[in-house]
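re: the backbone from monday

yeah here it is again, tokenized this time
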């Protein structure tokens, strides 16, 4: 058994040669498990439950005082001297002024995020029914204080330097400071051409907007750092798209999403400056990001860029491990689509794993599978290399050496986080030597049997130790039914049960509760997004709203979700579904 497990581990990690040696970390950033908890904390060696806070909400019932500001950004950086939304090469600036182009035809509010409206924007949900609100979030009217900007950045796309890119269909509307003192940057996406639109029309379609709206809020509910979405507006304005890049151009409806992040700067925001030799501006941008978004880094610290790099490396490794723990494939991990705050941004051709497959590629046009789910950890490493290249000119030779060591530590950080998260998914307390094998062995069986990623872990959370002993899973527990067809399932389950049995003083009910709090029951499967989109195309937004509600509580069984089969075996038509790539 032992040798078999070791081999299986190798098989599972075959893409991860880089990860076999955990480099030492002489800088001492984040060395022990305990210092490395970043965005969530559900992986400790004891079980903790997060408590829902009971804060009195003090929201505003009118939009009168609602305003944003661009002052800080405009004062910090030079703005493009040229005006106008025509496509051009831009130098020596970080932003260009650019006005959104309002959608012509009548617009309809399809959905809003209650939690963004109340908890971030301090507004009462009733405000979203007003005409003024619709005007603001459809781009028809500017929020007071707004000086819309388009950000200039570059990036490595599919492995190659692509030169100038930039906000091609998004406008930064301004910064909102909420009652908690948090600064949020509001962007409108699908709002028309900017100087960075290249060949595009700057619009977004219903399909991609529904997906971005729902997935942003679903990731938040899963406890994964992400940009947020306020609202989804659809219009009757026609947008022409070749959905599968096969020459079939089709008319679709335009839509806009208002989205938020603490900062929208990307790796490519720095790269374009380094490549252009604009080093003063590079320092300015780095100082701005550190001062505003990395409060733990002292602005006078001579090592601040190095500490910044080390933080991004660590947080990115953790973010990608979290993606893996929910079976999320981002789909377009270019350096221009990777946030410097290590939050998930740019929801495009993403997908959640169904049948477990490490080669799962959500973008059907990505023939080489560069951004397959199993490749994400390595792509993260590639992006961290590119980030380091862009920082090189501002690091001293000794800092460059130290940064190279930090980069070597990425693999170890990723593996450690992955291990912690999957241990939690299996309800394992403490650490035993064979835990890695237990996880790898399970994933290998899931791959062999094609069992459903989300529901295998969920049903393991729901099954009692007695049920696991008994086996004989029916269609009721369909994912375990599939998994248990593996000829080594009983070996694995014996190992697992023995391991659980050694957890002293651990009550089976506690284990199940805890596992249910880390293994979601509902994720945004492609077929669910597709079904909601089809209805939204005909102005029926009921399923978008239902999915928003259900995915806001992904760990909790819900009647409406069960009626729609969201945790059931996917419908047959779902298998033939291709992910739409144009947006
Ligand atoms: C929240 O606060 C309200 C009002 O003070 C109180 O009635 C309620 O019991 C509290 N809920 C929880 C979960 O503490
Ligand atoms: C609630 O809002 C009112 C009106 O804006 C303000 O005067 C009051 O201080 C706020 N209370 C809290 C607890 O924030
Ligand atoms: C990724 O970045 C590119 C380049 O800026 C941009 O055109 C694209 O829209 C981004 N991807 C998504 C899904 O937003
Ligand atoms: C999907 O992959 C293809 C091939 O690499 C690429 O050209 C396209 O831009 C990708 N689509 C998106 C939305 O990133």
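seq for it, each position gets an aa:
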């Amino acid at each position: 058994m032992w040798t078999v497990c070791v081999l299986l581990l190798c098989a599972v990690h075959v893409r991860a040669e880089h990860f076999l040696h955990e480099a030492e970390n002489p800088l001492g950033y984040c060395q022990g498990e305990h210092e490395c908890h970043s965005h969530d904390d559900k992986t400790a060696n004891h079980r903790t439950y997060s408590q829902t806070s009971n804060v009195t909400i003090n929201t505003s019932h009118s939009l009168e005082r609602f305003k944003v500001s661009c002052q800080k950004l405009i004062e910090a950086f030079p703005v493009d001297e040229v005006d106008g939304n025509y496509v051009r090469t831009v130098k020596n600036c970080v932003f260009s002024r650019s006005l959104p182009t309002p959608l012509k035809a009548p617009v309809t509010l399809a959905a809003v995020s209650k939690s963004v409206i109340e908890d971030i924007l301090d507004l009462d949900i009733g405000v979203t029914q007003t005409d003024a609100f619709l005007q603001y979030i459809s781009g028809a009217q500017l929020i007071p204080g707004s000086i819309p900007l388009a950000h200039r950045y570059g990036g490595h796309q599919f492995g190659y330097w692509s030169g100038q890119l930039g906000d091609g269909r998004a406008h930064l509307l301004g910064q909102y400071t909420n009652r908690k003192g948090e600064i949020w940057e509001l962007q409108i996406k699908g709002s028309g051409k900017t100087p960075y639109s290249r060949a595009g029309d700057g619009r977004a379609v219903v399909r991609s907007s529904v997906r971005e709206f729902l997935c942003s809020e679903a990731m938040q509910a899963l406890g994964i750092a992400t940009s947020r979405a306020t609202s989804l507006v659809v219009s009757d304005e026609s947008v022409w798209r070749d959905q599968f890049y096969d020459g079939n151009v089709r008319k679709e409806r335009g839509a806009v999403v208002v989205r938020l992040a603490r900062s929208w700067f990307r790796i490519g925001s720095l790269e374009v400056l380094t490549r252009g030799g604009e080093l003063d501006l590079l320092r300015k941008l780095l100082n701005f990001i550190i001062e505003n978004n990395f409060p733990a880094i002292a602005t006078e610290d001579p090592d601040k860029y190095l500490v910044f790099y080390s933080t991004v490396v660590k947080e990115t490794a953790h973010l990608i491990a979290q993606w893996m723990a929910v079976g999320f494939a981002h789909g377009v991990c270019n350096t221009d689509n990777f946030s410097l705050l290590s939050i998930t941004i740019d929801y495009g051709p993403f997908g959640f794993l169904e049948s477990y497959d490490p080669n799962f590629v959500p973008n059907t046009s990505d023939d080489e599978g560069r951004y397959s789910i199993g490749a994400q950890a390595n792509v993260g490493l590639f992006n961290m290399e590119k980030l380091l290249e862009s920082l090189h000119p501002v690091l001293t030779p000794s800092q460059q050496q130290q940064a190279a060591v930090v980069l070597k530590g990425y693999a170890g950080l990723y593996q450690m986080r992955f291990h912690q998260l999957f241990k939690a998914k299996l309800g394992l307390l403490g650490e035993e030597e064979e835990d890695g094998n237990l996880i790898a062995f399970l994933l290998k069986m899931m791959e062999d049997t094609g069992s459903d990623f989300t529901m295998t872990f969920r049903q393991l959370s729901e099954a009692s130790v007695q049920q696991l002993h008994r086996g004989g899973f029916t269609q009721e527990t369909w994912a375990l039914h599939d998994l248990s067809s593996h000829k080594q399932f009983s070996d694995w389950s014996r190992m697992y049960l023995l391991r659980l049995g050694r957890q002293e003083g651990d009550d089976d009910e506690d284990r199940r509760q805890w596992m249910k709090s880390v293994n979601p029951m509902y994720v945004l499967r492609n077929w669910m997004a597709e079904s909601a989109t089809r209805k939204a195309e005909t102005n029926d937004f009921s399923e978008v709203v239902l999915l928003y509600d259900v995915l806001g509580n992904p760990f909790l069984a819900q009647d409406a979700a069960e009626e729609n089969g969201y945790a059931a075996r996917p419908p047959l038509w779902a298998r033939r579904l291709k992910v739409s790539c144009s947006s």
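Residues 155, 165, 168, 332, 334, 336-337, 346, 348 surround 2-acetamido-2-deoxy-beta-D-glucopyranose (ligand 3) (CB under 6 Å). DSSP finds 19 helices and twelve strands in the chain.
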